């Protein structure tokens, strides 16, 4: 955590949120329908893997894939540099599957729209549910999560950073206040 970051959840609290989400993923499954988790790169992937580990102790193992939404973004023309593609890796058939799309933070909904487009290009799932660790509000599209770890209402200009192992050295959720605007006199 840097000096300006405001801690929202430490590692223990973040782990508790993930455990509670795993229970909701498992309770909402459709018996007899293959359960698949797809994480949105980057931090949606380790989150999906942890959710899958928690539900895999049951009779139905959860398989994890990763989706890269870079080419589905609607703001590519506004980027200052070329996007870095990390690739979509979905090692299963999405046709007829019960998909849980996983991301770390839900903000405007545009990332989720892009991820759904990427998944539907591969087939027709039976259902797609959305699981997010933090719902920070300020939606621009009519997209709502089915499973939420934490609802956080903050100023639109502030940022929320989720840090998850193994990408980051620690698990934590922090709020990063927007830089103050310079006044013109």
Automatic annotation (TrEMBL):
Its EC number is 2.4.2.9. It catalyses: UMP + diphosphate = 5-phospho-alpha-D-ribose 1-diphosphate + uracil. GO terms for molecular function: uracil phosphoribosyltransferase activity. The keyword Glycosyltransferase applies. Keywords: Glycosyltransferase, Transcription, Transcription regulation, Transferase. GO terms for biological process: regulation of DNA-templated transcription. A motif (PRPP-binding) lies at residues 99-111. Pfam families: Pribosyltran. Residues 31-148 form the Phosphoribosyltransferase domain. It is an enzyme of class 2 (transferase). Belongs to the purine/pyrimidine phosphoribosyltransferase family. PyrR subfamily. HAMAP family: PyrR. Also displays a weak uracil phosphoribosyltransferase activity which is not physiologically significant. This is Bifunctional protein PyrR. It comes from Paludisphaera borealis. The gene is pyrR.
């Amino acid at each position: 955590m840097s000096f300006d970051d405001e801690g929202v959840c430490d590692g223990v609290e973040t782990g508790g949120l993930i455990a509670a989400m795993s229970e909701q993923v498992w309770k909402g499954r459709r018996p007899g329908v293959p359960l698949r988790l797809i994480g949105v790169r980057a931090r949606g992937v380790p989150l999906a893997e942890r959710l899958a580990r928690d539900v895999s102790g049951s009779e139905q193992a959860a398989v994890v894939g990763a989706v890269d939404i870079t080419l589905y973004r609607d703001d590519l023309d506004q980027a200052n540099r070329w996007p870095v593609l990390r690739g979509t890796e979905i090692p299963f058939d999405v046709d007829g599957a019960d998909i849980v799309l996983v991301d770390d933070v839900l903000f405007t909904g545009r990332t989720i729209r892009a991820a759904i487009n990427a998944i539907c290009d591969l087939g027709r799932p039976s259902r797609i549910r959305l699981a997010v660790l933090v719902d920070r509000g300020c939606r621009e599209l009519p997209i709502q999560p089915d499973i939420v770890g934490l609802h956080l209402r903050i100023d639109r200009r502030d940022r929320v950073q989720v840090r998850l192992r193994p990408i980051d050295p620690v698990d934590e959720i922090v709020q990063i206040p927007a830089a103050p605007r310079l006044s013109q006199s």
